[in-house]
Specification:
mainly alpha; five-stranded antiparallel sheet; 11 helices; 5 strands; elongated; disordered N terminus
């Protein structure tokens, strides 16, 4: 059987820790059970040079991928601040509108009071003010009464003018705030587009990286095969020389077996194991299995499809950017998705794609982390909110409550 036909041996010899050992004479002796010699078995120079070049290229592309991930994380953090600013400005707009409504009501009341007084004067023959003036007993009293009437009219006019002034100021303030919000919305759209471009670039680099990784694995297997073949040839030559020496001396030489001292066994990787619509989503959370590691958004998509709500694709950061609009806990409802667009906790995948789960009530968020997990909202935010922050909203804009 050739070395390449044994998958277990190829898998063992392709591990970096063993491969590095194979380049040292002492380590080679331990692996193959050979006496220590000045030269260890080696692969051909051509294979070694190809492998070194491929590994260097792989490391370079991996560095590019890491750089993209870090740039994306920084942009996602800025985008999170923009979302916070939009939320803050919207709060100011709401407050200003409430003040405008209050002043409008006050102005309406003032005008109503003035209208009522004019109407009352008209109904009484319009003699109230005139009677007051005609009833003056002297010129001095006439002047005093006229001044009194003027004061009443001026007070009404001033009150109405003050309210109109304040209302105009509030209208101007609201207009300015709405302009700020429009600018922030434009910035958010630009940032989202930049993140999407970076995702596309990341996918291109990842494709190149995967190809290089396959090349490196193939060259490593070829090198390992050559090293093993060379070591076996050296061992055969050593045994032949020892047998010839024994025959010449006519002695019964019995050499110890040099078959190896055990095999390297790599560890087995652990396998990661309200309303009617709201309840359907919660039920689906508990019955929908994990589609695999790094497929959090796929699990959310499957949950909503299994619950009969609809199909909504995209990755976690797509869902975050499209549907997660609030960080107000009082607005969080059962069946909402809870997501971030970038976090540092899970390396490059988390930095570029973020994470998404579903709020099932009771302060619990369920999500696919390789296995389906249930975390408290606080712990979910603490872990996944380290970059862009965590927000929530209705997936697809479909309000379940």
């Amino acid at each position: 059987m050739s070395p390449n036909s044994d998958p277990i041996l190829s898998q063992e010899l392709s591990r970096r820790t063993v491969l590095k050992a194979l380049f040292g004479a002492a380590s080679a002796a331990v692996l193959f059970g050979l006496p220590t010699r000045a030269h260890a078995a080696e692969a051909s120079k051509e294979t070694t040079d190809k492998l070194n070049a491929a590994q260097a290229q792989l490391d370079e592309v991996q560095a590019q991928l890491d750089s993209i991930a870090n740039e994306y994380a920084a942009l996602a953090s800025k985008n999170a601040q923009t979302l916070n600013d939009i939320e803050g400005v919207q709060g100011q707009i709401d407050d200003t509108q409430a003040q405008i409504d209050e002043k409008k009501a006050e102005l309406k009341k003032k005008r109503g009071d003035l209208s009522d007084r004019v109407a009352a004067g008209y109904k009484s023959g319009g003699t109230n003010i005139l009677s007051l003036l005609l009833a003056s007993g002297s010129f001095e009293e006439l002047v005093a009464n006229a001044h009194y009437v003027e004061k009443i009219n001026k007070s009404d006019r001033d009150a109405i003018e003050d309210i109109q002034t304040i209302q105009a100021e509030l209208d101007a303030q609201k207009t300015e705030l709405e302009a700020q919000k429009a600018d922030l919305e434009k910035l958010k759209d630009q940032q989202t587009a930049q993140m999407q471009d970076m995702q596309a670039k990341q996918q291109e680099v990842q494709t190149v990286l995967n190809g290089l990784s396959d090349d490196v694995k193939e060259l490593m297997a070829q090198r390992d095969s050559e090293i093993l073949a060379a070591a076996q040839a050296e061992e055969a030559a050593r045994k032949a020389a020892a047998a010839a020496a024994a025959a010449n001396k006519n002695n019964s030489y019995s050499g110890g077996s040099s078959s190896g001292g055990g095999s390297y066994a790599p560890g087995t990787p652990q396998q990661n194991a309200g309303s009617g619509k709201q309840q359907a989503v919660v039920n689906a959370c508990y019955s929908t299995p994990s589609p695999g590691q790094n497929w959090c958004a796929a699990w959310v998509t499957n949950v909503f499809r299994n619950a009969g709500v609809g199909y909504f694709g995209g990755n976690a950061c797509d869902m975050f950017n499209a549907w997660c609009y609030s960080s107000d806990r009082s607005a969080l409802q059962v069946g909402m998705i809870v997501a971030d667009s970038s976090h540092s906790g899970t390396g490059a995948p988390g930095l570029i794609y973020g994470h998404v789960g579903i709020y099932v009530g009771g302060g619990i968020v369920m999500s696919n982390e390789g296995a389906i997990t249930s975390k408290s909202l606080d712990s979910f935010i603490s872990f996944y909110g380290t970059g862009s922050g965590v927000r929530w909203g209705w997936l697809g804009g479909v309000v379940l409550s």
